[in-house]
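To close the section, here is one more complete example, presented without commentary so you can practise reading it yourself. The ligand is zinc ion.
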Amino acid sequence: MQGEFGCTLFLPGSADGRPASVTIRANGFSVKHEGGSFEIPFHQVQASKGGYGDSMLILSGPGPQGPVSMYFADRGVVSGLSGYRLSPLLASQLSGSGGGGKAKWVLLVLLVLAGIGYGLYWVGAWGFGKAVDLAVEHVPPEWEVELGKQAATETLTQQRVCGNVAVNGTVNDIGNRLVAALDAPPYTFRFKIVDSPDVNAFALPGGYVFVNYGLLQKAATPDEVAGVMAHEIQHALLRHGLRNVVGRASIAIIVGLAVGDVQGVGGLAAGLAGELAALSFSREQEEEADRLGLDLVYRAKFAPGGMPDFFVKMKDEEEKRGIALPSFLSTHPDTDARIEALKAEITRRGTGSPEPLARDWAVSIAACDPIPLSDPDAEAGKAESP
Ligand SMILES: [Zn+2]
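Output:
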């Protein structure tokens, strides 16, 4: 038998899912979307679960321009495939992709709503936190990238980024060395330098990491910058910003997401992306980003002391000159405890085996040459002169 199934298709180089229809043929899938069509043979397809509560079936494989993923809210495609000659791998992946996650979800959300409805604040608050955790856990990385990209575009339209080749090369060297030490990051990290004198850095969901030029000027070594960037990279990987945004979403959006509404993340992004950069993290989130950030610094062979050194420097400035702490340290009055925790871990673990960055620090960060940020995915400093 032949069947046609609707899905959300993610193409390479685009974080935007688009509607597509998939037809099962004798030897593979025929995929049709607004921009064209292509075929993927069964033996090149992998199946997995994803989406909220693992309620969706994801089929991935090579498209004409690179890897593609298809998200199916309806598992009808699995029964549609019965009787076809599939590879043993795909057959076993499909048999393991049965439902179940969705029912658990609906139950949980109903419980939360009941708790709120009956004025049981505790049940409501507890259940709401759990619902948000579960929702965040199952957001596909593609949607995370979409949210981060929207936020990057919204928050940075008023700002400019550094176009200078040397400073971009240096920050990318540091960032790429940190990312290379990660185990299979779910998305591509992108590093940009914002033309701002404020000492700050932030990460958006989906791997968009921004470092202010003012922070580079304040840092004495690449290791100090590596410490802050590692902290920000861990915020992104731990989905802290995403969790904060989902936690502020309306119950309607969360219920929609819980029952596998693909449009839910779109609604979330449109309403809250702009707030992402402004939201602050909890003390627990900061401590977690510090701890895992320091571990990443060790693995990427930067000098671990750079991280607490930079934190101490910022704190001194605050105390002596009244300069506000950067947001990555603004868990005041717990900054001291965070610095002490980092120092204790370095005492325990030793100095590691740091390898210096093959660049002259003062020279590499000497100029910013600001340019407008047109596309958060564009590589600043690569295409522009000088
Ligand atoms: Zn932080």
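Once you have examined the tokens, check your reading against these statements. The chain is about 50% helix and 15% strand. The domain at 4-95 is CATH 2.30.29 (PH-domain like).
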